[in-house]
Amino acid sequence: MTSRRWLIKLMKQAAERKNVTFESIRQGGSHEIFQLDGLMIPHPTS
How many domains does the chain have? Predict the structure, then answer.
């Protein structure tokens, strides 16, 4: 299974190559919200 840290790093690098933003907006109890160039993406935490 891939690590969460590695996956986020990979997403940030890909976003930089495409000149879009990728950032963590907020962390909840069971999920984290990311924003990819204006698109909100929920990601469950384990």
Answer: 1
Both tokens of residue 30? 């069971």
Map tokens 């299974």 to a residue. 1
As given in the structure block, the two tokens for residue 32 are 């984290």
Q: CA–CA separation, 42 vs 22, rounded Å? A: 13
- Per-residue pLDDT tens over the stretch 1-10: 678 889 889 9
Domain that holds residue 33: 4-44
pLDDT tens digit sequence for 17-39: 999 999 999 998 899 999 999 99
Angle (nearest 5°) at CA 39 between 34 and 41: 40
